[in-house]
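ugh finaly. both done.
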Amino acid sequence: MYLNINNDKIHSGEIDILGAKNSALGIIAASVILDGDITLYNIPDLYDIHVMIEALKQIGFNVFFKNNTLKITGEANNFILSNESLSSIRGSYYFYSSLLAKFFHVSSFLPGGCNLGARPINYHLEGFASLGCDYVIFDNHIEIITQELHPNDIHLPFPSVGATINLIILASTILGVTHIYNPALEPEVLDLINFLNHAGAKISIKENYIEIMGVTKLKGIKYKIIPDRIESGSYMLLALTKTFSSISLNNTNYKHLEEVIKTIKNIGGIVRLNKNKITVISPKKITPINITSGVYPKFPTDLIQILAAILSDSYYPSTITDTIFENRYSYLKELKKLNIDVKYNFPSYQVSSSHIFNSAKLICSDLRGAFSLFTSCFLTHGHFQIQNVDFIFRGYNSFLDNLKKMNVSFSLGCSTDNLLF
């Protein structure tokens, strides 16, 4: 699928932010271990969510999803996840913990996701082993089984969001006390903890660890997912391009975006906060900076590619370092098509430009890289085409509707027959 953009005017607009995909994926999987009906609000309508919904149906649940509200009734009756689409998304591995808690057994495809380099699940599996599980991996499948789950102290080598969420889900119903040291404490992790505690779990955050006191039963509840800080940050950065004057975002939580707001101000943007609304006003010129992504609350790795597109619109170079994913650089060769100068010194690189071309065909290879290339089309007036734009739909709810709200002139195509270039 491709997107043609005719960028011949100054844009602005106001859009609504929905729930965080990375919260929703973990909470949907955790619903397996609750007894009773569950209603989840503010769920984004994305491909990954629909894959998780189909998995719930496959293992026995009744699921109704409409207007960003997800209703889950019934209970799980088997531990086998045979839907191959699970191997196309990263969040499918959250079912490992919930099905282990329910059946002491899970059989599934290995997780997928964007190609960002090595993304092993060894921290998850080592944590499961600490809680009494054995596993075997064959072809594209994984089988995890246990005779008896027991609490333990788990020391994560790296504060992995996925591993932290998986271990919290599993430990929440293991009687006794489990400690997770060096955990991830991203807002999405805290959202899962809040969800489970509302359902009756006993999870608390200490100075350098998470304490989980296992309970025998968790009840069904109604719960609203937090706003998506990465979607919010993406549009906030888009507002800094030359052909935008401002973008306002509704239903946001600026407390989750403090480092993003700080960075936007450092490069010249203006940020106005009003309760759950954020407005970003474009600067007259971009101020170059040096920045390193990191674990929350540092600048998020999921926004570093989009920030790079913004920083490239300056004669003076900015230095960018991504400490999380070693393969998040494929979009840089696409930025070069716009006459953007890129100098590599991995894991760092510099971007700058003296004259950005007003026409290019750009090819996406991952979700955030796709939004970065989309953002680069607004660095100057012109006509652009983005191929493999499907990636954007994996993480940005109502993306095309939002383009209309921002008065962006575009056309979408599914064939190569009528490409502009």
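ok and the 2nd:
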Amino acid sequence: MMKAKFLLAFTCLTFLFNCGGKPSNTTFHFKFIGNNCSLNGQSKYEVDVPCNKENVEFAINPSAGYQLKHYFNYDKGVVLENNVLTIPKMDRDYTILLNGIKEDVAAILHVHQPAAYTEFAFSYKASDEISVDWGDGTSDNLSSHIYEKEGAFNITIHGNLTDFSCTDKDSLTSVDLYSPALTKLPGVAFFGCSALTYFAMPETITTIANQVFLECKNLSAIYIPRNVNSIEEAAFNHCESLSSIIVSRLNPYFDSRDNCNAIIMSGSNILLYGTKNTIIPNTVVAINMLAFCGTNLETIDIPESVERIGIQAFHQCRYLFKVVMKNKMRKVQGSTAMFSDCPYLRIYVPAVLLSEYLGDENYDLSIAADDIRDILTKVKEGSISIDDALLEIKKDIIAIRRMIQVQQDKRIVNHSTHSSITQHKE
């Protein structure tokens, strides 16, 4: 009888945990509020949706003369694409506010001018004449403007842009591109925009050219639309704060499977770009050259499926202190300088493969066995000497010191810049 009661209580708790604190046979509430757009012909719409239902879709209609403003919720993976709002999993109540903007809006920029009488400028091509509302009460058809006072301003560009890039690298904080004539983000278009935190591109984009977002150090998240079929070299390198990447589930060329926060080439299963929060899926067979270059990655597991790591894949990951090789059957093929300029790094490998890794010039002296117990077992078996075992344990102590130093360095940076840095916890 006691056992039956326990099983009943356990089952009820399982239902609650699986459905965000509600019994699994209940619903969650969805509420839509639209501004210049509607759902089922209504600007306000509410409905109950079964708990844990996946890929819940709502068709949103912009009002006449309007288009829908970009919408992304990176934490929950909720996106608006092709005028359809998709919720990956109904695991809580949702209230979604969507806005329509004028059809002729090609771009909305947010800038922060640090002082009076400073200039902001951009570069563009267009199929017709543009007009620009500079956000300070003035408008014209120019591509540069001098602000008479410091502060934050919203810039709205009207027209039909065919090419766009930023020539001001310090004051641009966010970009929303809408022009349907845009099919390519040109090379180095936003290279070095150090204040840029948010970027949204139109669904018509097919190519993200080389170095587009290189050294956008504060860019935190990016959404890759369904039509993107080419992402070129160094497009997202040295994006230190990049923590979230979502690829459209309708994109046949790339994906971000299993909420991995990375861009994976769907056909070849090669990880193209990663972030500081990437978890590599066990379906990835290779890590591309420069994939994590310059990210604030701290620790990463290389799953059993990975066969090779490309040139400079983790170059200048200066907070990276722990890499764990999970494959116990074969060594992961390395490449030149794949872990170069990672001053705190410690690479943990299966003890049975330790000699193979130590003999590979692409790996350095940061190699260690993955378990001290394995080392002690080998001592007992007589396969390694006590001196060699002590040397390996000493390396582990050095690794711990490196890890502590990483956290101390990051606290210093956090204190001096007042920025939010996620700390890794073992």
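summary for the 2nd one i guess: The first helix runs from residue 2 to 18.
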